[in-house]
Design a protein that fits this description.
This protein is mostly helical. The chain has helices spanning 3-36, 48-60, 63-95, 97-110, 119-126, 130-154, 158-166, 171-209, 214-223, 227-255. The protein folds into 2 domains: 1-40; 47-255, MetI-like (MetI-like fold, Orthogonal Bundle). The protein is built from 10 helices and no strands. Helix 2 (48-60) crosses helix 10, helix 6 runs antiparallel to helix 8 and helix 7 packs across helix 8 (171-209). Keywords: Cell membrane, Membrane, Transmembrane, Transmembrane helix, Transport.
Length: 259
């Protein structure tokens, strides 16, 4: 790619980014205007300027950073465990009849279950703290990862597998060098589905029974009738979700550059 082509691509990206920001700016401006004109009671919708000021204050005094770190840690640990187990189970279920016989019914039944409904059960079993949150995130994220890994592995072109076997590729090499790379787009799609699920589960658990984290910070504002803190925590949650989603998209683009 030449310099001129690169400049054109960068310019096009900036134009698309600008178009995408227009609607966001309009919504935020409408929010501030509605609050300033008191079209909505301040308790229900505080001014955006007040919310941003509180967000900055909580960030500077370390409160937002501390709670954000705890939320990120819980979500990421649970997601990593779920991805590890889900990829292994999904790939093996697609390659082994015994594994398929055992896991296919479990995946099909477990995938549609709303994981949030299991929070009372996990509270009953494990109580509060990091462990039950991580465990529930693992359970909730396991299903989409395992399902997508299984389906992507089953959809690998059989001609690739036959060609590799004709060249004397062993089963282990076949799995590592042919099957998993060919199934990688589907596997990463499963991880992209699981990512917001991990954050949602973490936030909700923190709101219901947490003593720390962004979800707890938000629900603490509700309990103290501090709507500004509620919206400040909500903005932090939105920023966190956006950053994680964009980061995973960039990682996907680099890992699948060969496709």
């Amino acid at each position: 790619m030449g310099i001129a082509e690169s400049a054109t691509v960068d310019r096009d990206d900036l134009v698309e980014l600008g178009k995408g920001l227009v609607s966001l700016v309009v919504v935020l401006a409408a929010w501030e205007a509605a609050a300033q004109m008191e079209l909505v009671r301040p308790y229900f919708l505080p001014a955006l300027s007040e919310v941003l000021l509180r967000f900055v204050e909580l960030t500077l005094d370390g409160t937002m950073i501390e709670h954000g770190y705890l939320t990120i840690r819980r979500a990421i640990i649970g997601l990593v465990i779920a991805c590890t187990l889900g990829i292994v189970v999904g790939v093996l279920s697609a390659r082994s009849r015994v594994m398929a016989w055992f896991w296919d019914p479990i995946i099909e039944v477990g995938y549609p279950v709303p994981v949030i409904a299991l929070i009372p059960v996990f509270l009953f079993w494990f109580g509060t703290g990091d462990q039950p949150i991580i465990a529930l995130v693992t359970v909730g994220c396991f299903w989409p990862v395992a399902l997508n890994a299984r389906n992507a592995t089953r959809d690998v072109d059989e001609n690739l597998i036959w060609s590799a076997r004709m060249m004397g590729t062993s089963d282990r090499q076949l799995l590592r060098k042919v099957v998993i790379p060919a199934a990688a787009p589907g596997i990463i799609s499963g991880i992209q589905i699981a990512l917001p699920i991990s954050l949602i589960i973490t936030f909700v658990y923190e709101m219901v029974a947490g003593t720390s984290g962004l979800g707890y910070l938000e629900i603490r504002g509700v309990r103290s009738f501090d709507s500004v803190q509620v919206y400040a925590a909500l903005i932090a949650i939105m920023i966190l979700g956006f950053v994680f989603d964009r980061g995973l998209r960039v990682l996907r683009a680099r890992l699948l550059a060969w496709t």
